[in-house]
Specification:
The structure holds two protein chains of two kinds.
Chain A lengths: L2 E12 L2 E12 L3 E5 L6 H8 L7 E6 L2 E2 L2 H6 E4 L11 H9 L8 H7 L15 H13 L5 E5 L7 H16 L3 E6 L2 H7 L2 E6 L2 E6 L1 H8 L3 E6 L2 H8 L3 H5 L7 E4 L4 E6 L2 H10 L8 E3 L3 H9 L6
Parallel strand pairs in A: 3-8, 3-9, 6-7, 7-8
Antiparallel strand pairs in A: 1-2, 1-4, 4-5, 9-10, 11-13, 11-14, 12-13
Chain B lengths: L1 H22 L1 H21 L8 E6 L15 E6 L4 H9 L5 E4 L4 E5 L3 H12 L6 E5 L6 H32 L1 H6 L5 H30 L8 H23 L5 H18 L11 H7 L3 H15 L7 H21 L4
Parallel strand pairs in B: 1-2, 1-3, 4-5
Antiparallel strand pairs in B: 3-4
The chains are: A alpha/beta, B alpha/beta.
Chain lengths: 307, 339
């Protein structure tokens, strides 16, 4: 696999705030890389340095082994977190406008079809819905038939249908062997789309790998949820918790207030079930689930509220 | 290939900007209606009949203080210093005075083409002024509105240039349009040139429309060359668009841009001689006014339209506008940041 993008020791500071602090990683050709992190983690600053919009204070970025230059601008497709298009211009005119900036262009009809823009092609961009707007911005990012595409929180604020629709589009792009760098704070999005994941917090990388690697590295347990009962209370407070939780690294159980359910994390389901049955806890309504990226994200970045 | 791409990018931004402007109907209508309203309003305001039907300037009144003519009703006698004789004669030429009387030398000046002058002549002869000698002058009537129109056209260009570039680019910066463009191969120079050219031809189109509209509605004098007038207006618009680029270069908030643009436009509006002649102002203020492009536009356009002067007479104004255009443009491009 060849490397399309290499970032080495990126630093960026805004006044007192160290937004990005020594971030390094490589992006292989043809993968979808997910940059995850809570608000203010430094994802957008990192991705804007990769896009050539912001200059790093220190560190280097190479595209196909070369520093970012005009060739990179011609070959990159970018979708920012928030951009407006010029007022009083239709979707089609916007597409044509951006098409004329590039020497190499994609087939406009194909893009219109892929991004399903036919129905509002002659509408002014200012009058589009959220989902329509994101599809237009994606179409503009694809207009130069780019080799690498940057998507900064592309589905933030979209309804579930629009998100799934958008994911289908990304899958289509992935099949064309294009490289994608995606930032998001939706874990299901990262799980669905990303081959490689980097989790950032406070301007630094705190974990990286495929989602399977990350989950198996950090968790060896599953989550059991059962309805709350007095028997359960007594067994959780009295008997040895290790019997209930197994030999997990994080022997914890939570009461989930909203549904009056208790969540138990265990590395040994058999042992836990036995212990619960021995204490006369009813197992009807028991649910078991694997650990998810959501769990990992909260585990790594903490549960304190961010700005 | 490279220059071909540059041209293509420039043209496409230019076209998009033109579309945006032309489709913004309310702004377009305002750009045309606002100056028409001002000119119509002033034309109406200054045509009212005053009680004193005639204006007569008198020099050395004491030389013939007993003249019966002075007691005629409905004539406003304006005592004038002898030093202002030539200016007063010019006013008679332009019908701003109906008669000039010099009581010392017993002469009077009237305009041959003025009915009021003719009547006053008869009144003077019948009220003890029979021995006064007539000095004829000629010249067409100049109304305040004729004097006002060159300046108002210039002022309208100023607002359109400053706000059309300054405000719009700042809005683009704030809502992310500039950021999106920055991520493409489009260069700052290509983008800014397209903004300037788009605004320039839109301003010229609007100015010509307003000019024709005013001429049809109220009519005004135009004694000089249309080519020279077009040259002055084009250069003037260019210099003020470049001025707008300086405001647009870095400001991030529309409020700040609005404040700065007002800071530029208000002194120009009042100190460039659009509404009143600068002659009565403090010399220091008159000097200061020369740093405003609008002063040079107003002076040059008034010279062409009212006095029919040629290119050489307005050359200082043209050179000043040219120099300002170049300085402002270089400064604006140099200071420009996408973000």
């Amino acid at each position: 696999m060849s490397l399309i993008l290499q970032a080495k020791q990126l630093h960026k500071q805004f006044k007192q705030l160290k937004a990005v602090n020594g971030v390094s990683f490589d992006v292989e050709q043809g993968i979808c890389l997910g940059l995850l992190g809570p608000n203010g983690a430094g994802k957008t600053t990192t991705v804007e340095m990769l896009e050539g919009i912001k200059r790093p204070d220190k560190g280097s970025i190479k595209y196909c082994g070369e520093p970012l230059d005009e060739h990179f601008k011609n070959r990159a497709g970018i979708m920012f977190q928030s951009t407006a298009l010029q007022d009083f211009i239709t979707v089609e005119e916007s597409l044509v406008l951006f098409q004329q900036f590039y020497p190499q262009i994609a087939d406009l009809q194909q893009i219109i079809e892929d991004c399903a823009l036919q129905d509002f092609l002659h509408q002014e961009t200012a009058k589009l819905s959220g989902g329509q707007r994101q599809r237009v911005l994606l179409a503009i990012a694809l207009i130069n038939d780019p080799d690498i595409i940057f998507l900064d929180e592309p589905t933030t604020g979209l309804d579930p249908q629009a998100r799934h629709n958008f994911w289908q589009l990304i899958h289509k792009i992935k099949r064309q062997n294009k490289t994608i760098v995606l930032t998001t704070h939706y874990m299901d999005e990262a799980y669905e789309l990303c081959d490689q994941i980097i989790i950032m917090d406070h301007g630094e990388i705190i974990a990286e790998g495929t989602s399977a690697e990350l989950l198996s590295k950090h968790f060896n347990d599953v989550v059991m949820q059962i309805p709350h009962s007095s028997e359960l209370d007594s067994v959780l407070s009295s008997s040895a918790p290790s019997k209930i939780n197994g030999q997990t690294k994080h022997s914890q159980s939570y009461i989930l207030g909203s549904h009056n359910r208790v969540e138990i994390r265990t590395s040994d389901v058999n042992e836990t079930v036995k212990a619960l049955l021995a204490a006369n806890v009813s197992l009807s309504g028991l649910q078991i689930r694997e650990r998810t990226l959501d769990d990992l994200f909260l585990e790594l970045t903490g549960k304190a509220l961010r700005q | 290939m490279k220059w071909g791409m540059r041209g293509q990018r420039f043209i496409s931004v230019l076209r998009a900007r033109n579309r945006e402007f032309v489709r913004d109907r309310s702004a377009l209508a305002w750009n045309i209606i606002f100056p028409l309203l001002i000119i119509l309003g002033f034309a109406y305001a200054f045509t009212g009949d005053s009680l004193d039907a005639y204006k007569v300037a008198v020099i050395n009144q004491s030389g013939d203080a007993q003249l019966e003519f002075y007691s005629t009703k409905y004539i406003q006698f304006i005592e004038t210093p002898a030093g202002q004789k030539n200016q007063s004669i010019n006013k008679v030429k332009r019908h701003q005075l109906n008669m000039l009387l010099d009581a010392q030398t017993k002469r009077y000046w009237v305009n041959d083409s003025s009915p009021s002058g003719y009547l006053l002549e008869k009144v003077l002869a019948g009220s003890g002024g029979g021995e006064y000698k007539k000095q004829s002058v000629s010249g067409e009537q100049v109304r305040y509105v004729d004097w006002l129109i060159p300046g108002v056209l210039g002022m309208n260009m100023m607002f359109s240039a400053l706000f059309g570039v300054g405000y719009v680019v700042v809005r683009y910066r704030k809502n992310g349009v500039l950021k999106r463009l920055q991520a493409t191969p489009l260069t700052a120079l290509e983008f800014l040139t397209a903004q300037v050219v788009s605004r320039l031809w839109l301003i010229m189109a609007i100015t010509i429309t307003v000019y024709i509209g005013c001429d049809l509605l109220i009519g005004f004098v135009m004694r000089g060359s249309y080519f020279n007038l077009l040259l002055v207006f084009t250069l003037g618009a260019f210099s003020m668009i470049s001025m707008g680029l300086i405001v647009a270069a870095r400001v991030r908030s529309e409020e700040m841009a609005g404040g700065l643009l007002n800071l530029f436009s208000w002194p120009m509006m009042f100190l460039s001689g659009v509404w009143f002649s600068l002659e009565g102002l403090h010399p220091w203020v008159q000097k200061l006014a020369l740093i405003f492009p609008l002063t040079h536009i107003t002076q040059a356009a008034r010279g062409i339209m009212m006095d029919g002067v040629g290119l050489s007479a307005i050359m200082p104004n043209i050179l000043a506008l040219l120099a300002m255009s170049i300085i402002f443009l270089l400064l604006g491009v140099r200071l420009f940041r996408w973000e």
